[in-house]
Each structure stands twice: as structure tokens, then as C-alpha cells.
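Researcher: I'd like a candidate sequence for this fold, 329 residues long. If you have to choose between options at a position, lean toward the conservative one.
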């Protein structure tokens, strides 16, 4: 099972939840000359509502119109938009630009490393994760991605050590704040990826949902746009993956269908992940032809992403009524 990618980026950056409910300052052409600041506001609004393609185009317009006003924050938002759209090479270029402007910060090195990892460059990714930890040695997210780099380099001992470090840091956060959405969500994702503590992963996923809704049945119209995206797409996807791990294909199918109906516009990498697990679920339900179609859709959406190689392999074997591969997949 591959890691949850884009929600990590979304919630970890603090971009989607920061001031996402304010009215954007975007002014349509013909009213007055738009400024970079107005395009940035609109880019943030679009990203927070799941329109990653729109966010990318708007933020690129800001860089073109008034590049001198574009900050590291603007580039960070553009980076996340590009990653969401599966444009990993361009995202890496933007992340490297951020490093040049803020070399004293941990996050830019992490961003470069993640883009390198998805670009199939685990060795330089590992070096950037090490640099990130020099500035923030307690970042659970950095330890998580460092583990993935070690796994790509076939170093299982180092991988497991970093998973342990990430788990320890997430638990420290949850001791201080058991309702921390990011820690609950990301630790659940870590457990699902590494096939550890699956019952605890279920509790963490439930705690993540409760932290957004307050444990009450909240009507969708009462939620802000970014919380709708989380509760209607990302959390059902996470819960679908949980049911895949539990071997409950019928429940997994229902959760994945719920997420698919609410899938965000332009978030190709996330939707590719959804189709990947939909294919595995349909395979378990012995609907081999639909499983093959789901895997093919995953490849179509994100042909160079973290699911592409395995999805291509499963496209080839999906028509056979045989058991899927064992171990981490």
C-alpha cells in the first residue's frame, strides 16, 4: 500500500485551513487591472475548494504579472497545487526556488525531497530529508518520508527506524492535543501504509473526522469549503483504504464510491490513488474487468506518480481470477 500523498501536503502546510473562508480579492478583467495579491487570494480559494488546476493557473499568473511581489508563501501554494495535479518535475523546480529564498527553513527541503521521491530520485530526496531534519529534528512528517526514501533504496532496517521515529513524534503531539487533526490523520496513514496497528489506525481516522465536525452530524452546507473537501473526499478515501486493509471489500467499495462522487477538480494524483484502491477492491469482489478499468484510469490520471508502476502491473493481471500480490503494495 502506498502512502497518502496529497492530504499530507494540504494539511501540513497550513494553507488550506488558514483564512480559507475570507472573500478573495480577485477582480475579473474589465473591472480593473488585477494584481498579484488578488491572484494569490483567488489561488488560495481555489486550492482550498479542491480546484487544483485553477489554483495552479491563477498562481502562475501572479508570478507572471508581478514577480517581485511573489513570496515564498505564494510559491509554496503553487508547489502544492502542482503536486496535486501530478506535475512533479515542475513542483520540484518551484520547491528549489523556495529553498533559495528561505534556506534557513525546514519545510522547503522537505518539499524538494517529496518531489524528488515522486520523480524516482530517492538518493537526493534522502539528502534533502536529512537537511530538513537539521532544522527541525522532531518533524514526524519528515521522518515518514525519509522512511519512504529508504524503502525505495531497499534499506528495510533504516525504513523501519524512521517509521518508529515518526510514530514517536506523532504520539508526542497527540499526548498534548488528542484532537489534533493532522497528527491523527497522518499517523493513521502511516499505520495503514506500513501494515502496523490497524485497529489503532481505525481509531485515529475516527478521531480525525471528529476533530473536523466536533463529533456531531453536521450538514455539508454548514461546513467551510476546505472542510467539505476533507470530510467528503479525503476522509472517505482514508476510510476506504482502512477497509481494504481489514479485508472488508464491500465496505471499502462504499467508502471509495462516496469519495469518488466528491472528488476534487484537478487533483489528479489523489483521484489516481482512489482509482488504484477501487481496482484492488473490485478485484477482491471478483469483478476483474472493472478492476482492470480502474487500474487503467489510475495510470491515465497520474502516469508518473507513486501508483503508476503497480497499477500498470495490475492492469496486465487483473483479468485473471487469482489472488493479488502479497506484502506491501
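Model: Candidate sequence:
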Amino acid at each position: 500500500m502506498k502512502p497518502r500523498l496529497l492530504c499530507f501536503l494540504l494539511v501540513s502546510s497550513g494553507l488550506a485551513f488558514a483564512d480559507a473562508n475570507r472573500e478573495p480579492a480577485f477582480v475579473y478583467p474589465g473591472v480593473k487591472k488585477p494584481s498579484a495579491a488578488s491572484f494569490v487570494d483567488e489561488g488560495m480559494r481555489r486550492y482550498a475548494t479542491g480546484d487544483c488546476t485553477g489554483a495552479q493557473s491563477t498562481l502562475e499568473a501572479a508570478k507572471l504579472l508581478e514577480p517581485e511581489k511573489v513570496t515564498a508563501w505564494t510559491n509554496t501554494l503553487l508547489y502544492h497545487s502542482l503536486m496535486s495535479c501530478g506535475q512533479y518535475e515542475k513542483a520540484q523546480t518551484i520547491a528549489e526556488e523556495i529553498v533559495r529564498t528561505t534556506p534557513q527553513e525546514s519545510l522547503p527541503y522537505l518539499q524538494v525531497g517529496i518531489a524528488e521521491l515522486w520523480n524516482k530520485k530517492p538518493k537526493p530526496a534522502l539528502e534533502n530529508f536529512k537537511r530538513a531534519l537539521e532544522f527541525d529534528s522532531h518533524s514526524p512528517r519528515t521522518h515518514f518520508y525519509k522512511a519512504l526514501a529508504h524503502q525505495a533504496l531497499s534499506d528495510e532496517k533504516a525504513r523501519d527506524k524512521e517509521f518508529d521515529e515518526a510514530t514517536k513524534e506523532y504520539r508526542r503531539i497527540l499526548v498534548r492535543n488528542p484532537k489534533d487533526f493532522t497528527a491523527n490523520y497522518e499517523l493513521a496513514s502511516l499505520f495503514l501504509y506500513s501494515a502496523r496497528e490497524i485497529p489503532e489506525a481505525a481509531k485515529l481516522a475516527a478521531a480525525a473526522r471528529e476533530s473536523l465536525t466536533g463529533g456531531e452530524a453536521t450538514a455539508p452546507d454548514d461546513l467551510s469549503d476546505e472542510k467539505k473537501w476533507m470530510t467528503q473526499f479525503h476522509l472517505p478515501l482514508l476510510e476506504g483504504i482502512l477497509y481494504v486493509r481489514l479485508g472488508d471489500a464491500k465496505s471499502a467499495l462504499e467508502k471509495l464510491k462516496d469519495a469518488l462522487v466528491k472528488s476534487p477538480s484537478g487533483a489528479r494524483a489523489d483521484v489516481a490513488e482512489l482509482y488504484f484502491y477501487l481496482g484492488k477492491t473490485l478485484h477482491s469482489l471478483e469483478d476483474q474487468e472493472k478492476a482492470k478499468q480502474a487500474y487503467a484510469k489510475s495510470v491515465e490520471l497520474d502516469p508518473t506518480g507513486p501508483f503508476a508502476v503497480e497499477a500498470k502491473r495490475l492492469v496486465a493481471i487483473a483479468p485473471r481470477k487469482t489472488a493479488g500480490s502479497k506484502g506491501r503494495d
